[in-house]
Amino acid sequence: MRLLIVLAIGALFYFFQNLFFKKNWYKGLDVNVAFEKNIVREGDKNTLIEVVRNDKLLPLPVILVKFSLTRTFLFPRENNASVTDQYYRREYFTCRPFQSVTRKYTFTASKRGEYRISSVDVICKDFFFAENVFAGLNRFFSVLVLPGRIRDGEVPRDLLQLTGDIISRIKLLDDPFEFRGIREYQPYDSVNHINWKASAKSDVLQVNTFHTTNKRNVVILLNMETGIIRKGDVIAEAAIKIASYLATQFVSEQIPTALYTNGCDEDSKEQVSVEAGSDEGHIRNIDVALAKIKLAEMYEPFTKVLNRVISTDAELGNVNNEYIIISNYRKDDLIGQIDELKRLGYRIGIIVPEYNYNTISPLAENGTDVVKWGIDEEG
Q1: Per the structure, how many domains does the chain have?
Q2: Are the C-beta atoms of 107 and 49 separated by less than 8 Å?
Q3: Model pTM?
Q4: Using CA atoms, how far apart are residues 148 and 40, in angstroms rounded to an integer?
Q5: pLDDT on residue 172
């Protein structure tokens, strides 16, 4: 009889604690999953931060937090995570009354793009570890990964010459009364601008730089359509990095630089474009736009983008701009359009990202303003 009473009391206790737990476990509970930095660069490290706070008297013996991330975030190998099409993470917490638990995990952002944690599942067990209660958090936590930097040693000599020629033409008329600063000598710099005193101190040739009185724009035209099927995404990602590199070179010289492409923003679905600018934050603006480009199977024909940009510049009287086309695609329609624009007097440089074992003909026949950017097959 006593045993039955004990069992009955236990059953009642289990029933009421279960009822009470289901009703109150989520009150005062805050689960937050976020990133230490909202913007990083490809190859940089970032930190995933998980915070669970129990702001009530009821202790929570077992809390399971589940969510998924892109597999391009490279974490150290762990037992509580699995990687398939996504990186799936399961994290267990125990929270006493009014306790906050924070955990941090470092990872490497290995690929350009915008990534989100679109949902977080929270599962909690009662004091008998026998009942699961569930809640979903529809918060959005995102991180933007900018294109990786290209090191100077990776840049083809022909491209250094091409960009140097463009900078020299644009900055032909420097204002000697508008001193800007001192930097390391580049092949396109005038010998007259060498600062011999600064050069002697650093043992490296240094030149005085000046603000330009006659500014023209550089217009970077990025064609996301490739002429190949196999590993076309590797070519496309290389093209994006090249666009970022060029923008950095020109804006650092205070040359107004614009970017246009047939690649679309993943959120707005609109074609990415950045109007000409040369202020301190302009490089970041271009990198952010490039980071948001979604690789797709279909793009607007690049010839339409090129025609639209040229026509708009002509209407605005910007007929002296310098144009740089980045395109692996090189079929007759585009080549014919480029040839016609050159005959009309437009200055157009062409960069062709391509695997090392392929040639870039027929564009290679167009002169010294065509540069191949060789890519290893592994990417």
Answers
A1: 2
A2: no
A3: 0.80
A4: 10
A5: 65
At 323, the amino acid letter reads Y
pLDDT at residue number 82: 66
CATH at 233:
3.40.50
Q: Specify the pLDDT at position 350.
A: 95
Q: Alpha-carbon distance 243 to 259, whole Å?
A: 8
Q: Which two tokens stand for residue 229?
A: 């099927």
**Which contiguous run of DSSP H or E holds residue 263?**
strand 257-265
**161: amino acid identity, one letter:** Q
Residues of the chain with pLDDT under 50: 177
SS3 of 171-234: the string is CCCEEEEEEEEEEECCCCCCHHHECHHHHHHHCCCEEEEEEECCCCCEEEEECCCCCCCCCHHH
Structural Rg of the chain based on CA atoms: 29
Range of the domain at 311: 152-172+214-375
Q: Which residues, including other chains, have CB under 8 Å from residue 377's CB and lie 6 or more apart?
A: 231, 355, 356, 357
